[in-house]
Every structure is written in structure tokens, then in C-alpha cells.
Amino acid sequence: MRGEGDPRRARFLAEAEGWMVGTACTDAAADPRTEAFAVAHRARYGTAPAPWAVEAYDAVRFAAYGLTSVGADGRAALRSELLRRPWQGITRKVAFNAGGQFFGPAEDIGAFLYRVTDGKARSVARADDIGKAA
Fold first, then answer.
1. Is 104 helix (H, G, I), strand (E, B) or coil?
2. Using the 8-state DSSP alphabet, how is residue 47 labeled?
3. CA angle 102, 99, 65 (to 5 degrees)
């Protein structure tokens, strides 16, 4: 959760000291499941991943998984393949929504908790990990 250059974000974070904030994107460097992604991103591009970068990576890999599974059978086969079973990404397990055109979290709700401290949103935990024994 970065926001360099946006004065509204900076003002919000200054006023929200101590708040707990939930979001659907993870801090790739702070989440043990996505830390390797953050390291590889920094090595390749010289910067930390932007917000939503790791979720976008999972979405593209989910589509690629479906495309490689169906061969040349086309869009209908892709939808059938993606509906067949959930796929484990690095941020969460996802599944295609049979009633629509979107994919979403399966068992893992895909939510992350941050605490605002010293004008910055700092990752605390994955929502599904809260309350579990360490």
C-alpha cells in the first residue's frame, strides 16, 4: 500500500494513525507467500512491486494455465477447463465463477490487514491467518 505523490493519500495516512485497514491486495515483500515474487521483481526491475502487481501476476498465470490446458479448442473449452477445478496462485487459491465471467478466491478470501503507523500502511496479516496459532 504505497501512494507516493498523492497528497490525499498522505493526508489520510497522517489522520488515520493506529487504524486497521483491510484490502484485497497484499504487500508482496511482507507476505511470506509472495516474498519470492517481490525479490524477483526487484532484481528484474530495480523497484518494489506496485500494489496489485502480485495479484495481476496470479490472474495472468490462471489464464495461461487454462490456455495451455485446452490446446486449440477455443474459448468454450477454456471456460470449461477453468471451471473444472480451483487453481493455486501465489496470493490465494482462485476459481472461475460458474455463474459469471470472473474468477475469485476459493477457500482463501483474499483479504489482507494493515495498520497505519507513522503515516504508512504496514502489513499485519492475511485475514485468513488471523486467530490461527503461529
1. strand
2. S
3. 45
| Sheet with strand 103-105: strands edge to edge | 87-88, 93-96, 103-105
The answer to whether the beta carbons of residues 52 and 25 sit under 8 Å apart is: yes
Q: Quick one: residue 87, left, alpha or beta (phi over 0 = left, psi -120 to 50 = alpha)?
A: beta
| Pair 62, 82: CB distance under 8 Å | yes
pTM listed for this prediction: 0.71
CA 65 – CA 128 distance, rounded (Å)? 25
Rounded Cα gap, residues 29 and 52, in angstroms: 12
Task: Please measure the distance between the N-terminal and C-terminal CA atoms of the chain and give it in whole angstroms.
Answer: 25
Q: 114 and 19 in contact (C-beta within 8 Å)?
A: no
CB atoms within 10 A of CB 62: 19
The type of residue at 35 is E
List the chain residues with pLDDT less than 70. 1-5, 69-76, 79, 97-109, 133-134
> How far is the CA of 29 from the CAs of 40, 84, 90, 94, in angstroms?
10, 32, 13, 21
